[in-house]
Write a structure and sequence with these properties.
Helix content: 40-55%
Largest sheet: 6 strands, antiparallel
Strand content: 5-15%
Strand order of the largest sheet: 2-3-1-9-8-10
Distance between the termini: 41 Å
Shape: globular
Radius of gyration: 24 Å
């Protein structure tokens, strides 16, 4: 696992210096504390920071082809590299290392820009092909590993993280208002956009080539839309397929020359991963769990049941509100506004895990693959009601908002579920129904909060998120409802929110995170299962997955519903974070940025403090936006 960066001055002969590369590379030290490497040749340069996992002694990067005409820097892990290496050796390629990196450069020599199609793993790759004067950038299918780039009239620069790239020479740091608008709706900035007008994200499953001054981006993989579903198989055959694919994906991710463990939340997905690890390992698996003082948000009891069942070497850790002091550090690592509050516990569980191991497996991707989110059930149940008269639907939601939440904002209690169902009925189209279930700020709420100046700045681009999601759903005609929603998540929420969160949380602590459920063969199999196999009725989430692993789970885990990785924001903003939020977000500087109507922002705060409404997640989004500005654009004023 590493961090990579580079620059190509394609429009001039201006050399790329080591000093220039080092300035970007030093911003990636946390991603790779074990080693650094540089390659520069005339007007092109590559650099990397390395976290050594495989081939500790000879895996130094950048690595070249046999004749030195092509050079590579690589971030990630390739789990089938040994099989590829054997095939490439037969074809005459000579290997100087035992690394997966060298396998990729030889694969490029054989397959050209089609090389990512043959890789099984997570990766961000940059290759300089001197013979063709071509720069090639590529990302893995699921977007596990990030890659940002900035292209000017005569140069392109790239990096694994936004902050060091944005600080590079010639890169514009002008704030993109449409990104801020989308962030307030989605909690993340959707790619290929970033918070800066001058920087883009290379999207997952994409290859970018820059040759002869021309840039081309192509997609090399997608979910198997339109393929026949596997429902014709017997239940026994389907269960065996699911078990075998996940077992193989887990086994492949146990390859490591450094200590390895697993995150164990106590949910279905991480419990299955730990069970499969335990069956494939000779030694007890090291497991790590994180919880909260507030019992309604903590899953430690469930995690300990799995740990006992499989005799793991188990460690637990508790997050408290005063640990929010780490927020400025997290903002620096994310590089742009990001409001998934589970970033906080994800950071801490990564930090504690890194004290004992260098690699950790997790259950990320299980909900998308097998239909685990409660909002999936809500959409399935609510879709028939979505065409009811709007006043009737809104009246029902208003009533739900007034109901007292005696759970203190606890995730997934009865009131929460009722609200999610009613939110799902608000949409008249599938994209709007989807957004109603995931948005922090619904469109009327957001429009009331935003200043007239900000709305005028965005112009017709306002509500970018709605058009963004509509474009994804247009591609899925013919799929059942659940798989259409899952497809949208695989192309938005999963790579842009969940993968970003885990990459930053783990890499900020120099920890490599691996996800068996995100193996592309597991994903392809799961998408070829119809929605009815994933959700039985309106509440039976991940049905086929539960059935496949029933005998490997404690009964309490098998029967559990989705809890998620939420944190008690409602309570924290009336307690430990109350002063912090007011000091930052109601300051003269914050209000002067011009995004929000001050009276509406104060109303949002007052409603929360008086208990009229739990605005915890909305307040968190506003706070993360302000903290980002203080770190990266402190002098910003709209207009």
């Amino acid at each position: 696992m590493c961090g990579i960066c580079g620059r190509y001055n394609f429009g001039s002969t201006e050399p790329v210096t080591r000093e220039e590369l080092k300035a970007m590379n030093d911003g990636l030290v946390h991603r790779g504390p074990d080693d650094e490497g540089y390659f520069s040749q005339e007007n092109v340069g590559l650099a990397m920071r390395r976290l050594s996992i495989i081939d500790l002694s000879t895996g130094h990067q950048p690595i070249s082809s046999e004749d030195g005409s092509a050079w590579i820097v690589f971030n990630g892990e390739i789990y089938n590299f040994e099989a590829l290496r054997a095939e490439l050796t037969v074809k005459g390629h000579k290997f100087r290392t035992r690394s997966d990196t060298e396998t990729i450069i030889h694969l490029y020599e054989e397959k050209g820009t089609d090389f990512p199609k043959y890789l099984r793993g997570m990766f961000a790759v940059a290759i300089w092909d001197a013979r063709r004067r071509r720069l090639v950038l590529a990302r893995d299918r699921m977007g596990k590993k990030p890659l940002f780039y900035a292209q000017g009239r005569d140069f392109i620069a790239f990096a694994s993280e936004l902050a060091p790239l944005a600080a590079a020479r010639g890169v514009s740091r002008e704030v993109e208002p449409l990104a801020v608008d989308a962030f307030l709706t989605l909690q993340y900035v959707p790619g290929p956009m970033t918070v800066y007008k001058g920087v883009r994200k290379l999207e997952p499953a994409s290859v970018m080539t820059l040759q002869d001054g021309k840039t081309e981006i192509s997609r090399y993989w997608d979910l198997p839309l339109g393929r026949e579903k596997l429902d014709y198989l017997s239940l026994a055959e389907l269960k065996e397929l699911v078990r075998s694919e996940l077992a193989e994906a887990t086994r492949l991710r146990l390859i490591s020359e450094v200590p390895l463990g697993a995150f164990l939340s106590g949910g279905i997905d991480s419990s299955i991963v730990v069970a499969l690890m335990a069956r494939a390992s000779e030694r007890p698996v090291k497991t790590f769990a994180i919880g909260f003082k507030e019992d309604a948000f903590s899953e430690l009891t469930y995690a300990s049941q799995v740990a006992r069942m499989y005799g793991t070497d188990h460690t637990e850790f508790v997050v408290e509100s005063d640990m929010a002091s780490v927020l400025p550090k997290l903002v620096r690592h994310y590089g742009e506004p990001y409001a998934d509050s589970s970033a906080l516990p994800s950071y801490f569980v990564s930090r504690e895990t890194r004290r004992a191991v260098t690699v950790a497996l997790n259950g990320d991707g299980g909900d998308e693959a097998f239909g685990g989110y409660i909002r999936y059930s809500a959409m399935k149940a609510a879709w028939p009601f979505s065409r009811l008269p709007a006043p009737l639907k809104k009246a029902g939601l208003s009533l739900a908002e007034l109901l007292p939440d005696r759970g203190g904002g606890a995730p997934y209690n009865t009131i929460w579920r009722a609200r999610k169902f009613l939110q799902a009925t608000l949409g008249g189209t599938l994209p709007s129904t989807y957004l109603a279930t995931v948005s922090f700020f619904k469109t009327p709420e957001k429009n009331a909060l935003l200043s007239a100046a900000f709305r005028n700045t965005c112009g017709r681009g306002l509500d970018y998120a709605e058009r963004y999601m509509a474009g994804l759903f247009e591609k899925t005609e013919g799929e059942d409802l659940l798989n259409r929603v899952i497809y949208a998540d695989y192309h938005s929420y999963l790579p842009e929110c969940l993968m970003t969160k885990m990459d930053i949380a783990s890499m900020a602590n120099s920890l490599e995170a691996r996800s068996p459920f995100l193996d592309h063969k597991v994903v392809e199999l799961a998408f070829r299962l119809s929605g009815r196999l994933k959700i039985k009725g309106f509440r039976g989430t991940k049905w086929i997955l539960r059935e496949a692993f029933r005998d490997m789970l404690p009964p309490e885990i098998y029967g559990r519903g989705k809890m998620g990785f939420g944190i008690p924001l409602g309570q924290w903003f009336r307690g430990g974070l109350k002063g912090f939020w007011a000091e930052n977000c109601l300051s003269e500087k914050a209000l002067g940025r011009g995004y929000f109507r001050p009276e509406e922002l104060r109303r949002l705060w007052d409603d929360h403090q008086t208990g009229r409404r739990d605005n915890g997640y909305r307040l968190w989004a506003v706070m993360m936006l302000e903290l980002w500005h203080r770190e990266f654009a402190d002098d910003f004023r709209l207009g």
